[in-house]
Write a structure and sequence with these properties.
Elements (H helix, E strand, L loop, with lengths): L5 E6 L5 E7 L10 H16 L3 E7 L4 E3 L4 H4 L4 H6 L17 E5 L2 E3 L1 H8 L2 E5 L3 E3 L13 H9 L1 H10 L3 E2 H7 L4 E3 L4 H13 L3 H15 L3 H14 L4 H11 L10
Helix pairs in contact: 4-5, 5-6, 9-10
The site of octanoyl-coenzyme A has 21 residues, from helix 2 and strand 6.
Protein name: Enoyl-CoA hydratase
GO molecular function: enoyl-CoA hydratase activity
EC number: 4.2.1.17
Length: 262
């Protein structure tokens, strides 16, 4: 399918490749309109279905990962339009259906819906110029795609409240200190580092990769006891796989594993 608001690419030279999705509405700082969110969802699901892809990177430009939902598209909505037409809600959860790891490589602004999309990803890597925030309060609304839920889980209640209640931005360094991002990387090296991380993930046993993602998100997005119980069940199930036998056998024999499902 031809996309207008995103670019897609496949990178890497191992048996499993990395799907790269670049948000591409440069004039609007990658503001997330309906078409972009539709295209992002389709590209994510296409990479998820593709058995030659092991992981996915979502990135933006050097100036903006995404400066939020498109305010000009929403400005004249009334309550019924926002609710009934499902215009701004139907396509925001697709990213959560993806089973493969999704890495957000964030440079520049990740604000409002942009910060929310980054938080829906499994790992967030930040360029040193990245700025995170939920400035919805400044335009008379509240976050609508998980910001009030995922931000406190990511950085704790007090820091999240301060950001949410003031709309101020967080630097990449502060975001790393708070645990919102896993690493800060010089802007020029962001994609190289993101691709290197994906190559490391792609070399692992893919059922384990997908189950770890499912397990972490199960607990992160629900209660701890449910997550721990779920973890026990999937842990047991892996003892029915060849990769478990190979992985543990290789350790005992002091050699590198040759996973079948990679
Ligand atoms: N929507 C639409 N256009 C935008 C947006 C946006 N979110 N952000 C920037 N733009 C546009 C500007 O209007 C401007 O366009 P033009 O050149 O035609 O005037 C262009 O991008 C460049 O922006 P600026 O001139 O403002 O550039 P600056 O460098 O001065 O500032 C900022 C950059 C700080 C990013 C600034 O543009 C800004 O504050 N943007 C708005 C940030 C914001 O409020 N984001 C939250 C939006 S609301 C939201 O995300 C709710 C999500 C709910 C999802 C619900 C799903 C169910």
């Amino acid at each position: 399918m031809a996309y207008e608001c995103i670019l897609t690419d496949v990178r890497g030279d191992g048996p499993l490749k990395t799907g790269v999705i670049t948000l591409n509405r440069p004039k609007q700082m990658n503001a997330l309109n309906d078409q972009l969110m539709d295209e992002l969802g389709e590209a994510l699901m296409a990479f998820d279905r593709d058995s030659s892809i092991g992981s996915i990177i979502v990135t933006g430009s050097e100036k903006a990962f995404a400066a939020g939902a498109d305010i000009s598209a929403m400005a004249d909505y009334d309550h019924m339009e926002a609710f009934h037409r499902q215009h701004i809600s139907r396509n925001w959860e697709t990213i959560r259906q993806v089973r493969k790891p999704v890495i957000a490589a964030v440079a520049g602004f990740a604000l409002g819906g942009g910060c929310e999309v980054a938080m829906m990803c499994d790992v967030v890597l930040a360029a040193d110029n990245a700025r995170f925030g939920q400035p919805e309060i400044k335009i008379g609304i509240v976050p609508g795609a998980g910001g009030t839920q995922r931000l406190p889980r990511a950085i704790g209640k007090s820091k999240a409240m301060e950001l949410l209640l003031t709309g101020k931005f967080m630097t990449a360094e502060d975001a790393e200190r708070a645990g919102l991002v896993s690493r800060v990387i010089p802007l020029a090296n962001l994609m190289e580092e993101a691709l290197a991380l994906c190559a490391q993930i792609n070399a692992q046993s893919q059922p384990s990769v997908m189950m770890i993602k499912e397990l972490v998100n199960e607990s992160f997005e629900s209660g701890l006891s449910t997550g721990v119980r779920y973890e026990r069940r999937l842990f047991h199930s892996l003892f029915g796989t060849q990769d478990q036998r190979e992985g543990m056998g290789a350790f005992v024999q002091k050699r590198a594993p040759e996973f079948k499902h990679r």
